[in-house]
From TrEMBL:
It is found in: Mitochondrion membrane. GO terms for biological process: proton motive force-driven ATP synthesis. This is ATP synthase complex subunit 8. GO terms for molecular function: proton transmembrane transporter activity. Pfam families: ATP-synt_8. The chain crosses the membrane at residues 6-24. Its main location: mitochondrion. GO terms for cellular component: mitochondrial membrane; proton-transporting ATP synthase complex. Belongs to the ATPase protein 8 family. PANTHER family: ATP SYNTHASE PROTEIN 8. Keywords: ATP synthesis, CF(0), Hydrogen ion transport, Ion transport, Membrane, Mitochondrion, Transmembrane, Transmembrane helix, Transport. It is a single-pass membrane protein.
Amino acid sequence: MPQLNPNPWFFIMAISWLTFSMLIQPKLLSFITMNPPSSKPQMTTSTTPWNWPWT
C-alpha cells in the first residue's frame, strides 16, 4: 500500500513545517494587537444567595 510509505510525505511535512516556523510565524507575530489588555482593576460583584423553597 503506497499510503504507508513515509518517504515523500515526511519530506513534504518537514518542509511545510519549516516554512511556517521560519517565514510565516514571525510575520504574524510582528503585528500589534489592536486591543491591548489594560491594567484596570477587576470589579467584584456581590451576589445574594438563592433561597430554595424545598430545602
